[in-house]
């Protein structure tokens, strides 16, 4: 699970993040971190929709290469 400090850094910088939910890259959610609690994080997508996701997903900056979940 991603730490509160890392989420706060993403929120304050406005850095775009990628939420990797499974092995298919097309299913990733991209946007900026808006808010979070103990179990969920809110991501604002480019079309201004807000998505509520579980914090156990992999959250990384879009500038980094995508983490592969295939083993």
UniProtKB/TrEMBL annotation:
Domain of life: Bacteria
Protein name, as recorded: DUF2642 domain-containing protein
Organism (species): Paenibacillus lentus
